[in-house]
Amino acid sequence: MKPLLGTFYLLGMLVPGWLGYDRSLTQQRQEVVDKVVSPWRILETYSYNRYHPMGEIYQWMSEIREKYTEVVTQHFLGMTYESRPMYYLKISQPSSNPKKIIWMDCGIHAREWIAPAFCQWFVKEILQNYEDNSRIRRLLKNLDFYVLPVFNIDGYIYTWTTDRLWRKSRSSHNNGTCFGTDLNRNFDASWCSIGASHNCESLTFCGTGPMSEPETKAVSSFIESKKENIACFLTMHSYGQLILVPYGYTKNKSNNHEELIQVGQKAANALKAKHGTNYRVGSSADILYATSGSSRDWARDIGIRFSYTFELRDNGTYGFVLPETQIQATCEETMEAVLSVLDDVYEKYWYTNSARKAKSTALVLSLLMSFMSLL
Ligand SMILES: *[C@@H]1O[C@H](CO)[C@@H](O)[C@H](O)[C@H]1NC(C)=O
Ligand SMILES: *[C@@H]1O[C@H](CO)[C@@H](O)[C@H](O)[C@H]1NC(C)=O
Ligand SMILES: *[C@@H]1O[C@H](CO)[C@@H](O)[C@H](O)[C@H]1NC(C)=O
Ligand SMILES: [Zn+2]
């Protein structure tokens, strides 16, 4: 009996101790939950000069949506191959004006980390400045921005966990013997005719058919459903310092080729004026290489007037592994280029001669009013 009683006694000592331990664990868990729930936990200290893993980008998106509820909404696009949700952020000011859409996606190629960093930078810049910066305010009057910060989420995560230089998605092929489709060879634009491979081991594997991948299916069916209203399609990559216009699958030119080049060249000039970085402008087939199945060519072929691929910094020194110390300058100059494109798109759709007159009248009036308010 004695040893048994002793055992009960010991248990009696241990259980409260164990409960106490459990309580502190619960407390710790609660603190973690509180941190997640408390608004803008990430946003307050979010560094736009760093690369972020996918979990932080998901969190960033939801906190952006919560902080800027009056202009931002978050929308589901579809699921990735590995069943992760794809969301885009819509930045839109309530208005009765007929609006056009600007589409921007980043990170269709997993290893091009500067691209998602730019999408986040772009969103931050628009949201921090749209009230006070007249240029951005004007754009938002008639344009809605749809931003997909990471297109290839599975691949992006894989570059953080396993292989920094992974490019493709993570879909499984040939009975699980090789992985990944090049999502930017998977669009339905002269699919797999040139500059792409049917071999799933290849870096430019085009998939098993046009839009065979869940990611490209999700984006393309969404874009297709809105195409009448999409004025501009921007897809951000690295590296090479290029602004590319259609086409990659042919040397033929699109019917507004001159306009695309002109707007692109002006953007490259604006970019260079910021930090002196040189960009070249041209069609992919002319100045880079032949590619079929790209989203840029597909977007132009379904009738979107302005369609560009940006190849951000650098020019080969660090390549895909651009140091974090260059994020800020890269984003600043790219912002100048994108705003230049958007100004041009805006003017081509909205800024007619009569609008210009109306605008200068309004300007004179508001100047008069501001003088009067000084009195
Ligand atoms: C795929 O792999 C499994 C397991 O190794 C095997 O049983 C099956 O026969 C393979 N299928 C094909 C089509 O090769
Ligand atoms: C390029 O243009 C030529 C002449 O109009 C046409 O015959 C050809 O099919 C076009 N090629 C492609 C790939 O669209
Ligand atoms: C990139 O580097 C190459 C090789 O040094 C050079 O020829 C080219 O002009 C550079 N391009 C730009 C846009 O600076
Ligand atoms: Zn790329």
UniProtKB/TrEMBL annotation:
UniProt key word DNA damage: no
Bilayer topology: Lipid-anchor; GPI-anchor
Keywords attached to this entry: Carboxypeptidase, Cell membrane, Glycoprotein, GPI-anchor, Hydrolase, Lipoprotein, Membrane, Metal-binding, Metalloprotease, Protease, Signal, Zinc
Family named by the database record: Belongs to the peptidase M14 family.
UniProt cofactor(s): Zn(2+)
InterPro entries per record: CARBOXYPEPT_ZN_1, Carboxypeptidase_O, Peptidase_M14
Main location: membrane
Subcellular localization(s) per the UniProt record: Apical cell membrane
KW Cell membrane (keyword) present: yes
Residue stretches making up the Peptidase M14 domain: 50-345
GO terms (BP aspect): proteolysis
Residues at the catalytic site: 311 (proton donor/acceptor)
Protein name (Swiss-Prot/TrEMBL): Carboxypeptidase O
Residues in the signal sequence: 1-20
